[in-house]
């Protein structure tokens, strides 16, 4: 947990061999990062781990003790390789049993004839967990202590996160402004270093890119205090004007 | 290190506040995963961490001791927030000094007048490291022990990885076949479980997706042995035929 409770932190655990094998591009991290930021929660670390019981248990325990919130995606479906729920039950030393409420949800969705034993496996939830609704395909996620267990399919994960986000307690959201330049970052590196010294409470990031054969750079200013952020942006633009470097304000400070 | 040296493992460390803030989608993981797989190296874990010295040092040390190869992306540019190189020097307890070879590369690229002190910072490399060429913008990456330090800009990272990949010692590459179905995975979950029992040396993964309002599933079969893989695919198709489930072979077993 963060000691300073103006800052709330989260860790994200992406459980999935399909990401590690390169089969699937992980797009969940970006969506979760943006949503958490809006809720005033800082995503502090992401781990992409295989569907391996020992690794899941160890990572969940470590993250649960390290961050205010932990999110996981993947591995809660009906197949043999979906081992997230029983692994998390083990991480917290609780049973993994059929949950009556989850069973009722699946029964309403599938009907009694289609509720096969494979599908019933999705009603097995760690004891003491509360359910997270799944607006797409019924089978719920769950929350146990500070760990939120979500599906890996982006559409389903997003539906679950929409339900969770309003319940999170966060600090002031991080505000940001982005200014993009068509010069290599090395050309303004010293100026940015001085600007960072002048505005210690503003996080000044310099992110190079390569487009149409040319290097460019986006300068991202991030802070929780709007006035401080606006002052840093003003100082940055003054430096760029003085250096005769053209810029584009992609995202103005709010 | 893997004890069984038929299997070679790698860990990937993505160093970048811009991924954790949601500003940037990480596409490097997928490219690196695919390249390593072709080299017979299994990507075992990915961590996305902030540009924070202590976290970089701790993660690099842990990964270097845990995996055959470690790759990092990000944080080796000329600006104040690029702290990967000095942090990795600290992780290995070596100095972080101007490297003559790196300086010569930058000098040839920028010319003596444009080689500013900010740019010269990119010539500072942990002592004892060897350089990794950068075919895009000259400033090199480096290798120290089993750790390969690459740029974060995808085009540059890919150029560096193209140089590294042929030098990696790997095992037999993981072969794979993919069969996609337009039914929810819960409909074939029990069959897949039995198939996994029948083919323990084939990794059978079930990856649901949601397209045009319908759930479907890709079944991915992975193994190092081609014959075993082909037999598992044949058994899978027989089950699908028996169940009258239509399928598409996206990627046939080689």
Q: What is the average of the pLDDT values of chain A?
A: 94
Instruction: Please work out how many helical segments of chain A DSSP would assign.
Output: 9
CATH class wording of the largest domain in chain A: Alpha Beta
Described by strand count, sense and barrel closure, the largest sheet of chain A is: 6 strands, mixed
Q: How does the overall form of chain A come out from the CA principal axes?
A: elongated
CATH topology of the largest domain in chain A: Molybdenum Cofactor Biosythetic Enzyme, Chain A
Instruction: Name the helix and strand elements of chain A from N-terminus to C-terminus, one letter apiece.
Output: EHHEHEHEHHEEEEHEHEEHE
Determine the fraction of residues in helical runs of chain A and give it as a percent range. 25-40%
Largest interface: A-B, 69 and 69 residues
For this entry, give a set of tags.
homodimer, 254 residues, alpha/beta, Molybdenum Cofactor Biosythetic Enzyme, Chain A, Alpha-Beta Plaits, 2 domains, six-stranded mixed sheet, four-stranded antiparallel sheet, 9 helices, 12 strands
Structural commentary:
2 copies of one chain form a homodimer. The first copy, chain A, is α/β, with parallel strands linked by helices. Chain A has 2 domains: 8-167, MoaB/Mog-like domain (Molybdenum Cofactor Biosythetic Enzyme, Chain A, 3-Layer(aba) Sandwich), CATH 3.40.980.10; 175-251, 2-Layer Sandwich (Alpha-Beta Plaits), CATH 3.30.70. The first copy, chain A, contains 9 helices and 12 strands. In chain A, the strands form 3 sheets. A 6-stranded mixed beta sheet of chain A has the order 2-1-3-8-7-6, sandwiched between helices. A 4-stranded antiparallel beta sheet of chain A has the order 10-11-9-12, with helices on one face. In chain A, a hairpin with a 2-residue loop joins strand 7 and strand 8. The relative contact order of chain A is 0.12. Chains A and B meet through helix 1, helix 2, strand 2, helix 6 and helix 7 of A and helix 1, helix 2, strand 2, helix 6 and helix 7 of B.
């Amino acid at each position: 947990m963060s000691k300073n409770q103006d800052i709330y932190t989260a860790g994200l655990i992406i459980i999935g061999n399909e990401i590690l094998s390169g089969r699937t591009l992980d797009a969940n991290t970006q969506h979760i990062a943006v949503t958490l930021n809006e809720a005033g929660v800082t995503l502090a670390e992401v781990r992409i781990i295989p569907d391996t019981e020992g690794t899941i248990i160890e990572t969940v325990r470590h993250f649960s003790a390290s961050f205010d919130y932990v999110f996981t995606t993947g591995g809660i479906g009906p197949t043999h390789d979906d081992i997230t729920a029983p692994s998390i039950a083990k991480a917290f030393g609780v049973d993994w049993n059929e949950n009556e409420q989850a069973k009722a949800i699946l029964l309403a969705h599938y009907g009694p004839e289609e509720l096969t034993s494979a599908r019933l496996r999705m009603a097995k939830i760690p004891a003491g967990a509360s359910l997270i609704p799944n607006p797409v395909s019924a089978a719920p996620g769950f929350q146990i202590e500070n760990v939120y267990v979500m599906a890996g399919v982006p559409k389903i994960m997003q539906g679950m996160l929409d339900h969770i986000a309003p319940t999170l307690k966060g600090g002031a959201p991080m505000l940001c402004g982005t200014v993009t330049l068509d010069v290599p970052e090395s050309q303004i590196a010293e100026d940015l270093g001085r600007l960072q010294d002048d505005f210690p409470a503003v996080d000044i990031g310099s992110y190079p890119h390569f487009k149409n054969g040319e290097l460019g750079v986006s300068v991202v200013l991030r802070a929780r205090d709007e006035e401080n952020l606006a002052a840093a942006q003003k100082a940055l633009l003054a430096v760029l004007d003085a250096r005769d470097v053209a810029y584009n304000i992609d995202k103005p400070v709010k």
